[in-house]
Amino acid sequence: MAADGAQVRLAVIGCGRWGPNHIRVFSESDRATVVGCADISQQRRENMLKRFPQIRAVADYHELLADESIDAVVIATPTFTHAQIAREALQAGKHVLAEKPICATTREAAGIVRLAEDTGLVFMVGHVFLFNNGITELRKLVESGELGRIHYMEANRTNLGPIRGDVNALYDLATHDISIFNYLIGCSPVEVSAVGRCISQKNIEDVCFATLKYPDGTLGHIHVSWLNPRKVRTMTVVGDRQMAYWDDIDPDNTLRLYDKGIDQEPHYDSFGEFRYLLRSGDMHVPAIRQSEPLVNQAQAFLDWVLGGKRSLSDARYGLEVVAVLEAATRSMAAGGTMCRVEAEVPEALCEVA
Q1: How confident is the model at residue 266 (pLDDT cuts 50, 70, 90)?
Q2: Contact by Cβ (8 Å): 37, 48
Q3: 114 three-state secondary structure
Q4: Among the CATH numbers 3.40.630.10, 1.10.3720.10, 3.40.30.10, 3.30.360.10, which is that of 130-292?
Q5: What is the Cα–Cα distance from 111 to 346, expressed in whole angstroms?
Q6: Span 108-129, mean pLDDT?
Q7: Which of 139, 205, 278, 352 could join 168 in a cystine, given CB atoms 3.0 to 4.6 angstroms apart?
Q8: Tell me, what's the pLDDT at 144?
Q9: Whole-prediction pTM value?
């Protein structure tokens, strides 16, 4: 147990792809005890009991919410179920860690923000890449000014599958990159343009391209796809002093810093004639401590619940990411036109019932 003996009694709702990982990482923490899980699939429940025989597995998550001995829940169910489960969990007095995105719409997200504030309970969104040490180091480089003014950011997140039937590739994959871009720049974009194509299923885009415009003019470009022969998880950040490249697939050199750019020659031959020089200096690989991002995220959640250390990835942060997704969805429906990001929702429209 932790030094002061404090522990969080926790349950996981949803035992599909990510639920078991949450059970594992919280079970390994000395500040948490996983006491239960819920899933409508009997096969999944049986699988959980084989792996974690010490926990209770139920079909109806309401049984967990009614258990007064449970302090917190993790929501790892399909996106369209997040809002209802989150509301019920907060109303039952449970702290919540919800998988990304926080929910499907800004109306739902705004309701969760308000309810979390009213109850005073912890509500954290699982934007797991905010807890990746490579991304944390990249944020430091941007914040310190070492890269200079950021001109643009580019993210590629592709693979052959897994193809989802509840949300499109934008909601599934681009959610990560939007959360990272907002973290690096320190704010949300003001406009978004996006295009996509439905290939394997009707009305669900398998491939999407999105361009984000930030208040200072910085651009972000995102390519996500479920139909690509290569698994790619890369990000490039181009500043006027240096450039950075992050590769999440490469376990050894996840972040590289390049002393490259364009310099204007100080002298020129005649009025109006400028010469530009390509600067190509050294490449530096910062030393980054390796640790599992999901473990870091779990520890941040426990820090907030037990110690009051608020996480950046709160309900408001989740709302801002969903607002970008909504604007991108409107843009795709309009053929790629630029659409404003509307993160502020009138209180009358918040879904809190």
Answers
A1: low
A2: yes
A3: helix
A4: 3.30.360.10
A5: 10
A6: 97
A7: 205
A8: 97
A9: 0.93
